[in-house]
Amino acid sequence: MKKSLVCITAYSNKFWEINVQGTIFIVLYGKIGSKGSVNTKEFVSEELCMKRANKLIESKFKKGYWEIRKDNGRSQTSISRNY
What we know:
By secondary structure, the chain is α+β, with helices and mostly antiparallel strands.
């Protein structure tokens, strides 16, 4: 599962992406236009990894992030990015 989110307001211009691969997730985040920073985390099971990833995604939605579609509209559809 891959999710790409952005938060563009008067005070911020950020991106946040997550890529879940089995028992590992990779998070890429930073200011739009920068290379960003990368964090990885490994879990004991795929179920726990997915649960934690979904929890992070929900927390980003609560902070004002949204997913964007390939046609640049706001949506619940994510854009894939190569890691």
